[in-house]
Amino acid sequence: MKKSLLIAAMLLPLLLTFCKHESTVRKVDLSGPWRFQKGDDLSWAAPAYDDRKWDTLLPTTWWEEQGYKRLDGFGWYRVKFIIPSDLKVNAFRKDSLQFLLGKIDDCDQVFLNGVLIGENGVTIRGNEKPGNDFITVRDKWDLDRRYVLSADDPRILWDQENTLAVRVFDQGGYGGMFSKPFEIAMVDLKDYVKFDFSFSAFTFEGDTAVSRKFTLQNNYGKSDFRGVLEWKVVSYENGNTLYKKDSVIVLDKNGKSQYRMRFLTDPQKPCYAELTFTETTTGHRVTETLEVPYIWTPAPTPQPRINGARVFGVRVWSPFRFKVPATGQPPLKYSAEGLPQGLKIDSLSGQITGMLSKKGEYPVKLKVTNVLGKAEGGLKIVCGDLISLTPPMGWNSWNCWGLSVSDEKVRISAGLIKSMGLIDHGWTYVNIDDGWEDKHDKDGNILTNSKFPDMKALCSYIHSLGLKAGIYSSPGTKTCGGYEGSFTFEEKDAKAYADWGIDYLKYDWCSYGRIAPDPTLDQMKYPYKVMRHALRQVPRDIHYSLCQYGMGNVWEWGAEVDGNSWRTTGDIEDTWESLSAIGFSQNKCSPYAQPGRWNDPDMLVVGWVGWGPALHYTRLTPSEQYTHITLWCLLSAPLLIGCDLSQLDLFTLSLLTNDEVLAIDQDPLGRQATQAKANEKYQIWIKDLEGGGKAIGLFNLTDQPLNVPVDLKELGLTGRLNLRDLWKQKDLGQAENHFEMNVLPHGAVLVTVIR
Length: 755
Ligand code: GAL
Fold this sequence. Notes:
It is globular and about 85 Å long. Helix 6 (490-500) packs across helix 8, helix 9 packs parallel to helix 10 and helix 10 packs across helix 12. The two termini are 45 Å apart. The model is unreliable at 1-23 (pLDDT under 50). The protein is mainly β. An eight-stranded parallel β-sheet has the order 38-37-36-35-34-31-30-41. It has a seven-stranded antiparallel β-sheet with strand order 4-3-5-11-7-8-9. Strands 42-43-44-49-46-47 form a six-stranded antiparallel β-sheet. 44% of the residues are buried. It binds beta-D-galactopyranose (GAL).
């Protein structure tokens, strides 16, 4: 935003707003510009301090987004406002006032009228003096800041001008106040009574019944709440209520009760549940809406079908491993015609192994049979300099287990990729992220920690299943999790990886920032070149995955340092905000994707995630998860499942096993989709496919179902075109000039148009 606009907005009186849905709830909106000054001085907390010469800044987004590039350390925000006593009119209980200050990256002390009221998310109740050790707290940057004062707290000046001053310390990277809401309001029923769905997923019982557990928690310490719990299920198609139930309940003070909703539904017909608790005496209510998972992926046919990549890259003298992904009623029998010398196929497991000694292109005809029939398909083996000719597909330990990953968890995951049939759809890599490392010994050999007693045996096990093994390190002295990095040990580490049988390396910048604090482009490339050199010395194909969050527009030079993929963003989270911000900002990288070189918008956040050890079910709605997979496939992104596979539910499995959708990611042409249309309501992305067809993704950004129109002429597509819905695997007939599809809130539709 321009500075003049910011100032104009700041002069507007701070608004006393009325929430749309509950006209009774009043609040002071603090999301407009605040005063800001970098540096640190405790006298800046005083209400009388003259801050008129300070800059103006929005509290809703980071310093770095508002012109303060690379600002780390201290900064102060100040804002003045009236706290009107009519906030209490119609308030649920009139006893507590809350200050909601979005999130603060990384540490904060909050002063109301010169007195400390909160620190790093904890309300300060007495008159404590501000200390300096609050800046050592490391893990609160993503925490919602909510400070609650008793309504009769003398620090609040009712109906008078108040001053909030926020002292922020940023430890590095992005910093400052961000997110939302920024407001002051009386504490409402919804602040005390919370629905929690995170500990369970919807369960399908047979073909039609669906159920989900949830809890209701009463955080109010002073009394029980009596009221009505109502839940109803509403069809998206026609708005009809499909099911409704209510019961009178009592929520014990500081108590938590568990409930279960169960109803009959058709899993192919999308609907949502609306749950409401209405407190009896005040009529105040808390409502949550929960989309019910709908399954579009058809069940695999019993007849054989060959899935997955149709092209595979390998270098000479590197161990070859490719499991032919195929579905169909077992037992399946595999054969391959035209395999080059040095390779063989195992007819029972479908694994092609061996080694090639001559560069060249080898077209192979694959055949898979069972008692019901046969499937044939082509696989082009390209023995040359490039590997990963289609984006890698697999599993990575980070988004579920975080640093609590262990040999056992990795083995279990690998076993499940096979036993749950994911391998039959092309899921191949089993990647250990941060948390496996110990020290380098006196000879410079990297040792594994006690959670990984025998890395070589683990890799052999993974290979025996037809899968591939991946590992993680940093060019710095330490990884992001504080484990040992590869700095100065690159060659030894690469040899160790090859010796263990590693097929994939994620190489994460992390503490390299201490070696090159304000890196030039050359300094950004350098550590990646060093490891690249080391990897090229070992007789093994290792997918080289650069992870440095997109610094220096890595997509422009990732190929130059021989990366096979490179992260284009910071870490993903399982929220719509994170998913949509990352996914829909990838257009800039599009021209750089090609076979062997992939933009990586980070790993998948479907299923049970949590960055370990405690997991929760993804906070994305089912429709948001359709958007996730659809968009990532259009983006030709590496697909790395990040969830606990031992809890894989039917819905998540259906998302990960739609072969027509996955084929868009694995398309041999290797193009990345581009954004063809973007407005506030929807986006359209289009991807060129081998053979001249196009894949088109339609995305609804609103929270209501939306008809998304596609102007084919605008996309350069003329004549009569055959349309196919890939999720449903159904032909939609022909279209000329224009077609339109209904897309669910935050959801997606993926079609191909083929002449
Ligand atoms: C982050 C990286 C994550 C994960 C983590 C491990 O920097 O982006 O994907 O690898 O480090 O500590």
